[in-house]
Design goal:
It is built from nine helices and eight strands. The protein is α/β, with parallel strands linked by helices. It has an eight-stranded mixed beta sheet, sandwiched between helices.
C-alpha cells in the first residue's frame, strides 16, 4: 500500500498481510532494522505463514534509518509517522482497535522502536516483542560516535544525546497500563550486553517481562527461528481478557 505521510512529508509504503477470514482482525506492527526496509520480513522469513496460523494482520512499515524517532534535525517525524500509519490502517481495514488487539515488534533498530513506541504509547498496545534490540540507546549513542557515518546519523536523530523521552529505561518505569513484554537476544549477538542491562533494569524495578537468551547471532537465521514464539506470544495477548 502506497500513501503520503505528513509526518515525514513524503510518499511511502507499507506491506500488509491480510487473513482470508472475516474481520475484525488483531494487528501486529512489525518493524525492520537499520539496513533494511518494510519488505524485508516477507523476503527473508516465513512471516506470512505465521500470520495465517494465528489469523492476524501483519503490517510492516517504513522506518528508514530513523530509529523510529522524530529527528532532532527536522528531517522527519518518524515516531509520528508510525502512529499516523496505525490510524490509517484502522480506517482502511477491518481491524481490532482495542489495545489488546494491537501488537508491535521488531528486530535490532526495530526492536528498540517497538519497545520505545509501545511503552511511550502503552494505551495503544497490548504486547511488545523485541528481537536482538538496540535497547540501550544511551550506550549505543556512545558507541556510534566512534564511527563517522553512525556519529552523523545519531546526531541527526538525537542531537547531543539521547533524551529520556527516547530512552527505553525511563519509559518502562512510566508506562501505564503496562503492555505484555517479550525480549530475546542471541548469545553471540553484539547487542547481548545491552539486552542484559535492560533485563536487569526491568527485574530490579519489578516490571513484568519475558526475557530469553538463545543460541544465535545478529542474523536472519536467528530472527526466522524466533517468529513462531513471538507470534504465539502476541496471540496469547490477543486472546487474554482485558485487565
Amino acid at each position: 500500500m502506497r500513501y503520503f505521510s505528513p509526518a515525514i512529508a513524503s510518499q511511502t509504503s507499507m506491506q500488509v498481510i491480510i487473513p482470508q477470514t472475516p474481520g475484525p482482525h488483531p494487528v501486529i506492527y512489525q518493524l525492520h532494522g537499520l539496513s533494511d526496509d518494510a519488505s524485508i520480513w516477507q523476503r527473508r522469513t516465513t512471516i506470512e505463514l505465521h500470520a495465517e496460523r494465528i489469523n492476524a494482520m501483519v503490517v510492516m512499515l517504513e522506518g528508514g534509518t530513523s530509529f523510529y524517532t522524530d529527528k532532532a534535525d527536522g528531517t522527519g517525524r518518524w515516531e509520528a509517522h508510525i502512529l499516523e500509519s496505525i490510524s490509517l490502517v484502522d480506517s482502511t481495514y477491518r481491524t481490532r482497535t482495542d489495545r489488546q488487539g494491537r501488537a508491535i515488534g521488531g528486530l535490532s533498530m526495530g526492536g528498540y522502536g517497538a519497545l520505545k513506541i509501545g511503552l511511550k504509547h502503552a494505551s495503544r498496545f497490548g504486547s511488545i516483542v523485541s528481537h536482538s534490540g538496540a535497547v540501550d540507546m544511551v550506550n549505543r549513542y556512545r558507541e556510534f560516535l566512534k564511527d563517522p557515518y553512525l556519529a552523523s546519523l545519531v546526531r541527526s536523530i538525537y542531537a547531543a544525546g539521547v533524551p529520556a523521552s527516547e530512552d527505553i529505561f525511563p519509559l518502562a518505569l512510566a508506562a501505564a497500563p503496562l503492555p505484555q513484554i517479550a525480549i530475546d537476544c542471541g548469545r553471540d549477538d553484539f547487542l547481548l550486553e545491552d539486552n542484559r542491562r535492560l533485563h536487569a533494569h526491568l527485574t530490579r524495578n519489578r516490571i513484568a517481562h519475558r526475557y530469553q537468551e538463545l543460541p544465535g547471532s545478529h542474523s536472519w537465521e536467528y530472527w526466522q527461528d524466533r517468529l513462531q514464539a513471538s507470534f504465539d506470544f502476541h496471540q496469547a495477548c490477543f486472546a487474554a481478557k482485558p485487565a
